[in-house]
Specification:
This protein is an alpha/beta fold. It has helices at about 20-30, 50-55, 75-90, 110-115, 140-155, 175-185, 195-205, 230-245; strands spanning about 5-15, 35-45, 60-70, 95, 120-125, 135, 170-175, 210-215, 215-220. Strands 3-2-1-4-7-5-8 form a 7-stranded mixed beta sheet, sandwiched between helices. A two-stranded parallel sheet has the order 6-9. α1 (about 20-30) links the parallel β1 (about 5-15) and β2 (about 35-45).
Length: about 250
């Protein structure tokens, strides 16, 4: 599976001028193991050199850059990445969504692919709640939010194969993305922020999607900038989404 399809790597980027260089360098190294890689970057209104630094890699990687002149938020950015993949991908292409802050290890894409070898219609989540996960240097409030979300979401939305509903590091196959768009229809408005990660899974639960997890390697010491998550706002948005979807 490593080289019989194209792996699209989607990167939502907002003020990541330092991290994006490290992430793209890691993806170049990954090409030694996975031949066919395409990168989609949504520059979400960055005020620094994120866009400039991304363009420097266009001769080394197959990169498509979508440039939002104004910041539209993570939810909109994720939706843009998924929609672009739906329109441009072919056959058995796969989409990886990962953070652009250098906390996710691109080499884990190989583990994800091997997890679902000879399978289709799936999502693979790099999970903080699988045996063997390595989570280091994460701020206390982020850890608390992740643990609280783990408890609450597994009470209200218990789903076979999912323990970590909020991890942003995931692998989707093309059939799954097509199912997502068939569910949401033409008038769908994406969730605004980090809660979009949850929203995608809640929509996909309505189909016969196969969910899998691998243990994540997550090290916030590699993150060169402060977290952009407003924890209080994110909690509020999660609660609002739970109320909207619990009786959906």
């Amino acid at each position: 599976m490593l080289n019989n399809c194209t792996i699209w790597i989607g990167l939502p980027a907002f003020n990541e001028e330092k991290a994006i260089k490290k992430v793209l360098e890691s993806i170049i190294s990954l090409k030694k193991k996975i031949n066919k890689i395409k990168v989609i970057i949504v520059n979400d209104g960055s005020k620094d050199k994120t866009l400039l630094n991304a363009k420097k890699f266009q001769k080394k990687l197959n990169i498509k850059i979508i440039n939002n002149k104004k910041n539209k938020g993570l939810g909109n950015t994720l939706y843009t990445l998924i929609l672009f993949f739906k329109k441009k991908s072919i056959g058995n292409d796969k989409l990886v969504l990962m953070d652009c802050d250098n906390t996710h290890n691109p080499n884990q894409i190989i583990t994800m692919l091997r997890k679902v070898e000879k399978k289709d219609n799936f999502v693979v989540i790099a999970s903080r709640f699988q045996k063997g996960s390595l989570v280091k240097n994460v701020p206390f409030l982020r850890n608390l939010l992740s643990l609280t979300a783990f408890i609450i979401f597994n009470i209200f939305f218990m789903t076979k194969g999912i323990r970590d509903f909020t991890s942003g590091y995931r692998l989707y196959d093309k059939k799954t993305i097509e199912n997502f768009f068939s569910i949401i229809g033409n008038k769908y408005l994406p969730a605004a922020g980090f809660e979009m990660q949850l929203e995608i899974l809640l929509k996909l639960r309505k189909t016969n999607i196969n969910f899998f997890e691998i243990p994540i390697i997550l090290d916030y010491k590699k993150k060169p900038t402060a977290s952009k998550m407003n924890v209080v706002k994110t909690i509020f948005n999660y609660l609002k989404l739970i109320i909207l979807r619990i009786f959906d």
